[in-house]
Design a protein that fits this description.
heterotrimer; A alpha+beta; B mainly alpha; C alpha/beta; B: 10 helices; C: alpha/beta; about 25% helix; globular; binds ligand MGD; binds iron/sulfur cluster; binds molybdenum atom
Chain lengths: ~250, ~325, ~950
């Protein structure tokens, strides 16, 4: 049903919080995502011309890198993973003529039912984040499932019920949780770190949030330096070395 | 947006078809059509033929054609679904119109009633088509107050051109309906041309929907530039939505459209109106309008930028 | 409408195996899921000490390498001309017979005529032992072109190293300085560590010409000019000395800062430590006002001043020499800022930040410990300034000294193996240096070399040189050109084999190294040498054996190809005898187990090598020719003993499998590893976690475990007496002296205290002609040439660009994707550029090993890797320009022989707009055509 679900009181809003302050742009999340999902809910994630002149394929998560104006003409490089943001107000769902594209009431996850998708691609036109990918082989639309077949999978130990990209991220830049619950770890992170919505001006109200880069500084106290003595050795050093040592 | 011929055909042909259907209903009510028991049915078949061809063409780009029927289910929320439903529904009054025309005659109240209902629903269908594009927020060149009216104006224009051609051939004379239709062609050609020019001025003045800064949430760091893409080769998003057309190329095409789609048909229609070989001038006007509008529709896609391409450092 | 079917209960697969990843050398633990006998999913092993469950892009893509079309399918015998790629598939019996006959012949005549070089090899304890037992000194692994500068500088200074043998204290560091690292071997551990630092709000400073990856998330980026880190570090030392920000207590207790250095220029022992009759180094005890043993306790050793020895000669504490050198004006920030491209104010601020954190914000852990002098300390206090450095420093010809300067900096602030600082990774620390000199001169009765092929020279007598002082080893390692070439000089192997000719080399045996491509300095020349023939029409390098798993560029140049399995199809061990998975928390090692059965006629190389050794009857591998001691590598891993009780695997030893370290072989060992998810680790007790170099409990424990042979304090070498011995020889002392042509060079570069000098190649290059530094970086999602046939990884790096600073691009009128020619003193290549801001303005760079030769690794001949991808190697040379004497020295560090990849300088020449959009040079396609057996 592609009309959006009535937001139920107490319903969860599962999503990702991505920390641009620690993302080193290693693509681990992207590849592990592909690895999990190519036999996951939206299996397969095809590759086209894999060993040829124009390799391409379906990926649910892609890592960009940008340069923001840095200090002294030296750009600040920012790595930027991009996947479905599981928007609260997803046009990709309402435009779908078949009901294949839908948003779950219970947790807000946006999915495609590939059994009824006719491959009209309209949903991908409706997504400002370029998060939907068309399977040229099966002729249907696919996208990030938030690893729905992991996060609820009872065959996995509790601790492993998290998205593949989150589990694999070596610099712990990806966090998964319920953004509807202000007490959740992710909500707290967003609050503390000033997490942002991408293209908020379009009004899709993304669930996923991005934490902007930080800059840690060290305050140093001024050091007084006694005049240097002959031999070029600083007075401070001479004073220090004068102290009694014990070996 | 990458122009896909199937979609271009859809929107142009349905424009002609439903436009014609709409004018048939109105002209019939105005008693401006030939009395012949054959004219109505033939005209309706032509109208539905155009519309049908367009709709069939549109299914060609589906990944799963065999599931096309599923597209009728979401009329509550989806304009694409509504278009489908409306298109099918329009056939009923249209056929009623044809049958009643043949059986009871063009003047019969029932015929007129069917005609007017068909006309309304035809325009409704065109409106649904327009809204498919108009509702797409990520595409500024579509998501604006021009898109829907333009589609309607173009439908009216192309429908009139088709009707004029039909009447021209049917009656061979510049009198009566032919004159009326030709006059409409002139009027709508000018109107549509002006509207399209206004639309172009509008989108040229439009600012981008978002900046790379807002798209990445890095605004506080000053201007943001794309450094590396996730993958070297083109992917689905870029192939489908990353289309970029050179300014110069677009400008040239715009001129061609103005001449082919609007100016030329207007002149020819004027000739037909003046009685100069209406049987030739009117069809020629319709033909040129067709070609011109196809080009116009190509531009409508080619000039449309999808905001997601901003992530790849492309201008939107 | 049909409901969307979601699998809420589906298990991942029907089988799970734990093994060790080998999509790179990081050695992460993986959990491999199989479904219907096929690979379903590879994830990180959450219990594994290295990766704790995370998995990088390469590891996740392993699933695609195992099915790659580039996999070799059967042993190959060359039928066409060498390099043409025309082969015949043969069976293993024939392959082994050919290899055995060839090697037997060599061993019977002159075993050194076997040149055995291994690349990304994680079984060096096996391959090295094979070489030793075979009796050839011409063995090395990739270290020589990799990071021997880091290894040697560390092992000769602190008994550990940034390279593999150390790690920052991620849990306590407050300031982390990262020098020249893009990725490193510890791919996942470093990322996990950076995350920890970020979580605690520690400051990360990255010193690097390029701002990507780790540097991208650094709190401060220092865009240094390549090759100048030594100057920068010495300027930091200059400031710290001036401020008196030095941990003198640490220096006298744990280093040789107070040892008295004989100061009588011209004499045979000038610059060596003054010693007493027993040979114990002396210091001046200010308390007693007299000389005393430097290791005596309760003394108050002088760090400055000049003292008179009993024989009346002058001597000075080594610290005095150091302080005098770096206090000099030439190391003032203002004096180095232009050269380094770092503002003097920045250098001063960074020095102040180091002082602030080290001395005003120390970390104290409530944990008592006892030092080697028996003194009990109630707490463990440390300087939370951690450092890590890798190839940005090592891949320069001044890398050894630069790296030593970094260790000196660590010692000066007392930041070696203390809480919050850099720490030893078990099995380190080791004595300085860890072992005896290299073997090579003598064979024992069994025809084996009398020691390890790769050793640790401590004096000229240890060098492998002839009476004229010329190299004995093919690659020139352990010669006066590279006295501390402790990893060999693999980058010289082919060039020197070609130069030496048949008399010295019969067979070149290459394992896991793509030496005809991305590990060749100058692949064009290298491939020419491989195919060059003597007057009589015979190949100048008579026989080439290549053991690879994939259709690499090098395979095409083999006479015999021994196809290896992929990492999921074999046993392997990540051994404490090589580069284990140990950490600061204790020793650990791991195994690989076959998860899949090979679907083609390939064999694990280690099995093949053991089989070969058996057929040859090599000592330690066979009782006699054809009477092997081991049936397979798995068997060897369990039963081989290097020392009594010490074998390839340290875990689950002893009859009952309860011993870690030294113990009887345990037939059940492998199943115990499997039950323990593929690894074994021993967690050090808390009191042994820091100050390992002087921690009595740790050192005695390590000795018992067999990690070290001597448990006395490891005195850190602030001053390197070892280096001075070589310098003395150059000054004309001692029996073994450098040849005349190298005297000045040796005297200059074997300085006992760190020095900085302009990268050698740059001093021989017209820098006006070639003003730009050209370097490469490791892409995080590609491992050298391993991944380009991987369907997923190649979508990320199917081609590469040359990154150019915006201002430089503007100055040359260049825009993104424009084609340029990159011209160096030895060659030119053509590629496309990309503009960026985050790069040193005088530096251009690209990703390493993305370009592939057309047709390699089963890619389409018009694959982007070959058409637009490029290797910087084409404009690098393994030789320096000929000197006045006409002799060409290798383009390497003069102390260690480390390949100086990053000394390269170039200029850019924009191409005409109508230029053909193809990289240059484009060598003729390599395409393997195999006829016979299989087909
Ligand atoms: N310009 C430039 N060049 C460089 C460097 C640089 O920084 N810049 N870095 C240098 C350094 S540090 C290094 S270490 C070298 C690395 O360069 P190489 O040592 O040549 O290593 P690789 O390219 O990783 O591949 C070696 C071979 O191992 C094969 N291989 C992969 N898996 C297996 C397996 O399971 N078994 C067997 N038998 N073979 C396998 C691959 O097919 C490949 O042919 O490159 C050096 N080259
Ligand atoms: N993903 C992946 N991981 C790998 C490898 C791989 O190919 N891919 N290779 C493995 C191997 S064999 C090795 S040796 C290690 C090497 O790991 P790294 O040491 O990270 O090797 P490089 O990528 O060569 O990094 C060199 C870094 O030093 C910088 N640099 C260059 N010149 C200078 C300089 O003069 N000063 C400073 N301060 N910085 C400089 C470069 O910009 C670059 O960031 O990585 C290992 N890990
Ligand atoms: S895995 Fe983590 S660090 Fe690597 S790209 Fe993804 S988010 Fe960034
Ligand atoms: S990111 Fe795109 S696909 Fe995902 S929910 Fe939002 S609009 Fe839909
Ligand atoms: S492509 Fe599939 S999911 Fe997307 S709108 Fe069309 S039918 Fe719906
Ligand atoms: S949540 Fe799952 S599907 Fe979505 S990006 Fe992460 S791994 Fe891929
Ligand atoms: S870093 Fe990646 S490729 Fe290397 S061993 Fe670990 S998981 Fe495997
Ligand atoms: Mo390396």
């Amino acid at each position: 049903m592609t009309s959006l679900p009535q937001s139920q009181p107490g319903a969860r809003r599962l999503g990702l919080v991505i920390d641009l302050d620690t993302c080193v742009g290693c693509h681990a999340c992207a590849v592990n995502c592909k690895e999990w999902n190519t036999e996951g809910h939206h299996a397969p994630l095809p590759d086209y011309d894999p060993h040829g002149a124009d390799p391409d394929g379906v990926w649910f998560n892609r890592i960009h890198s940008y340069e923001a104006e840095g200090s002294g003409g030296c750009g600040k490089t920012v790595n930027f993973p991009r996947s479905c943001l599981h928007c609260e107000n997803p046009l990709c769902v309402t435009v779908c003529p078949t009901g294949a594209s839908y948003k779950r009431a219970e947790d807000g996850i946006v999915l495609v039912n590939t059994d009824i998708c006719i491959g009209c691609k309209l949903c991908s036109w409706a997504c400002p984040y370029g998060a939907r990918e068309f399977d040229e082989h099966d002729g249907v639309m696919k996208k990030c499932t938030l690893c729905i077949d992991r996060i609820y999978n009872e065959s996995l130990p509790e601790a492993e019920r998290e998205p593949a990209c989150v589990a694999t991220c070596p610099s712990r830049a990806r966090h998964f949780g319920d953004l509807a619950d202000p007490e959740s770890r992710v909500s707290k992170l967003v609050a503390e770190r000033g997490g942002v919505d991408l293209m908020a001006e379009l009004g899709y109200r993304p669930t996923n949030k991005y934490l902007p880069p930080r800059q840690t500084r060290i305050e140093t106290r001024p050091v007084e330096m006694p005049a240097s003595a002959p031999g070029g050795l600083g007075g401070a050093l001479l004073a220090l070395v004068d102290k009694v040592l014990s070996r | 947006m990458t122009p896909a011929s199937s979609v271009l055909l859809l929107t142009t042909l349905t424009g002609f078809g439903y436009g014609l259907l709409a004018w048939l209903g109105i002209f019939c009510a105005a008693g401006a059509l030939p009395e012949s028991p054959w004219f109505g049915p033939v005209a309706v078949v032509i109208a539905l033929g155009f519309a049908g061809a367009g709709l069939v063409a549109s299914t060609l780009h589906l990944g799963r054609k065999e599931r096309a029927w599923r597209a009728f289910s979401q009329w509550r929320s989806s304009w694409l679904s509504r278009e489908g439903v409306a298109a099918v529904a329009t056939n009923l009054p249209a056929l009623g119109f044809a049958v009643s025309w043949a059986a009871l005659g063009a003047g019969a109240n029932l015929t007129v009633a069917f005609g007017l209902v068909a006309a309304a629903m035809a325009l409704g269908t065109v409106f649904c088509t327009a809204m498919i594009y108009a509702c797409l927020k990520p595409i500024r060149q579509w998501h604006n107050r021009f898109t829907a009216p333009l589609y309607l104006v173009f439908a009216a224009f192309s429908g009139a051109a088709l009707l004029a051609a039909l009447l021209g051939v049917w009656t061979g004379a510049a009198a009566g309906g032919t004159a009326g239709a030709s006059a409409l062609v002139v009027v709508f050609a000018i109107g549509a041309g002006v509207a399209k020019a206004a639309y172009w001025r509008f989108i040229d003045a439009q600012g981008p929907l978002a900046t790379l800064a807002s798209a990445t949430g890095l605004g506080s760091f000053g201007t943001v530039r794309a450094l590396d893409r996730p993958h070297f080769t083109e992917n689905y998003v870029l192939r489908e939505m990353g289309y970029q057309i050179a300014r110069r190329h677009a400008a040239r095409l715009r001129r061609i459209v103005l001449v082919l789609a609007f100016a030329a048909p207007a002149v020819l229609a004027a000739l037909a109106l003046a009685g100069a070989m209406p049987a030739v001038a009117a069809p020629l006007a319709a033909l040129l309008a067709g070609i011109g509008l196809f080009a116009e529709r190509w531009l409508f896609f080619a000039e449309a930028t999808h905001v997601s391409a901003i992530y790849y450092g492309r201008a939107v | 409408m049909p409901e969307d079917r979601i699998a809420y209960h589906a298990p991942v697969g029907d089988e799970v195996a734990h093994t060790t990843c080998y999509m790179c050398a990081c050695r992460c633990g993986i959990k491999v899921h199989l479904k219907d006998g096929k690979l379903r999913y590879i994830e990180g092993n959450r219990d594994h000490p290295i990766n704790r469950g995370v998995l990088c892009a390469k590891g996740s893509a392993g699933i695609m390498s195992v099915t790659s079309p580039a996999r070799l399918r059967a042993p190959l015998k060359r039928v066409g001309p060498r390099g043409a790629g025309e082969f015949e598939e043969i069976g293993w019996d024939e392959a082994m017979a050919i290899a055995t006959a060839r090697l037997a012949g060599i061993r019977a005549s002159d075993p050194h005529r076997l040149a055995f070089f291994t690349g990304r090899d994680q079984s060096q304890s096996l391959t090295g032992h094979f070489a030793r037992m075979f009796g050839t000194m011409n063995f090395a692994a990739h270290g020589g072109f990799c990071s021997v500068n880091m290894a040697a500088a560390g092992l000769y200074s602190v008994g550990g190293a940034f390279w593999e043998f150390g790690e920052p204290d991620w849990n306590h560091a407050k300031l982390f300085l990262l020098f020249g690292v893009a990725e490193d071997h510890d791919s996942n551990p470093i990322k996990l560590g950076l995350a920890k630092l970020k979580e605690r709000g520690a400051k990360i400073v990255s010193v690097n010409p390029v701002r990507t990856g780790y540097s991208a998330i650094a709190d401060e980026f220092v865009g240094i000019t390549p090759g100048t880190d030594g100057l920068f570090i010495m300027a930091l030392i200059h400031c710290l000395l001036a401020e008196g920000a030095v941990d003198t207590a640490f220096l006298v207790r744990y280093t040789n800062a107070h040892h008295l250095v004989i100061d009588v220029p011209g004499e045979a022992d000038h610059g060596l430590f003054a010693r007493d009759a027993e040979g114990a180094a002396l210091a001046f005890d200010r308390k007693a006002g007299a000389l005393a043993r430097a290791d005596a306790t309760g003394t108050d050793p002088a760090l400055l001043g000049t003292f008179t020895l009993p024989d009346g000669r002058r001597a000075r504490p080594s610290f005095a020499l150091l302080a005098e050198r770096y206090a000099a004006a030439e190391y003032a920030p203002e004096a180095v800022e232009a050269r380094c491209g770092i503002a003097a104010t920045t250098i001063r601020r960074l020095a102040a930040e180091i002082a602030e954190i080290a001395f005003r914000q120390p970390v104290t852990i409530e944990q008592a410990w006892t030092d080697t002098d028996g003194r009990r300390h109630e707490t463990m206090t440390g300087r939370p300034v951690a450092m890590h450095a890798m190839r940005g420093i090592s891949a320069h010809s001044n890398g050894f000294h630069t790296c030593r300067a970094l260790h000196v900096l660590q010692m000066l602030i007392g930041a070696v193996d203390t809480p919050g600082s850099w720490r030893y990774k078990s099995p380190h620390p080791k004595p300085i240096p860890p072992g005896p000199g290299p073997a090579g001169r003598a064979h024992d009765g069994r025809g084996a070399l009398t020691g390890n092929v790769l050793g640790f020279p401590t004096s000229p007598e240890d060098l492998l040189v002839d009476d004229a002082g010329e190299p004995l080893r093919l690659d020139r390692a352990f010669s006066w050109e590279a006295p501390l070439g402790i990893h060999g000089m693999m980058h010289m192997a082919i060039a020197e084999a070609h130069a030496a000719g048949r008399a010295r080399v019969d067979t070149l045996f290459l394992y896991m190294a793509n030496m005809a491509w991305n590990s060749a300095m100058n692949p064009g020349e290298t491939t020419r040498m491989l195919t060059d023939r003597d007057a009589d029409g015979e190949y100048r390098i008579p026989f080439v054996i290549v053991a690879d798993a994939f259709e690499s560029e090098t395979v095409a140049y083999a006479d015999l190809v021994l196809p290896d399995t992929t990492y999921l199809e074999r046993y392997d061990c990540i051994s404490l005898l090589d580069r284990p998975i140990g950490s600061a928390h204790g020793p650990a090692d791991a195994i690989r187990v076959p998860v899949l059965k090979p679907d083609r006629d390939v064999r694990p190389f280690q099995d093949v090598l053991i089989d070969l050794a058996g057929r040859l009857g090599l000592p330690d591998f066979a009782e006699a020719p054809g009477k092997p001691l081991y049936s397979s590598y798995a068997d060897y891993m369990v039963r081989h003993q290097r020392k009594p009780g010490v074998g390839p695997l340290a875990g689950f030893r002893g009859a009952d499998g309860t011993v870690f370290g030294r113990g009887e072989p345990n037939p059940e060992q492998i199943s115990r590893y499997i039950a323990n998810k593929g690894f074994a680790r021993y967690d050090l007790p808390l009191e042994q976690l820091y100050y390992k170099h002087a921690n009595r409990a740790y050192l005695t424990g390590a000795k018992e475990m067999g990690l070290i042979d001597d448990d006395s304090q490891i005195v850190l070498n602030l001053y390197s007496e070892h280096l001075q011995k070589f310098r003395l020889a150059a000054e004309g002392h001692g029996a073994v002296r450098p040849p005349e042509r190298l005297r000045a060079r040796v005297a200059r570069f074997m300085d006992p205290l760190p020095i900085w000098y302009e990268p050698i190649e740059q001093t021989m290059t017209d820098m006006k002609q070639f003003p730009l530094h050209a370097i490469t970086q490791r892409p995080m999602s590609m491992y050298h040439s391993w991944g380009s046939h991987n369907a997923w990884l190649r979508q990320i790096h199917s081609e590469n660009r040359l990154y150019v600073h915006r201002d430089l691009a503007a100055a040359q009128g260049l825009e993104d994707d424009d084609w340029v020619e990159v011209v160096s003193r030895t060659g030119r290549l053509k590629c496309q550029i990309r503009i960026m801001d985050g790069v040193n303005p005088h530096t251009v760079w690209t990703w390493n090993a993305i370009g592939r030769r057309s047709g390699a690794v089963a890619l389409a001949q018009d694959a982007p890797e070959a058409v637009r991808g490029f290797l910087l190697n084409h404009v690098i040379s393994e030789y320096l320009p000929a000197g006045d004497d006409g002799a060409r020295l290798s383009n390497s560090d003069p102390v260690t022989g480390q390949a100086a990849w990053f000394d390269l300088t170039v200029r850019l020449e924009p191409c005409e707009p109508e230029t053909i959009a193809e990289t240059q040079p484009r060598m003729a396609p390599v395409a393997l055509t195999t006829k016979g057996a299989g087909q």
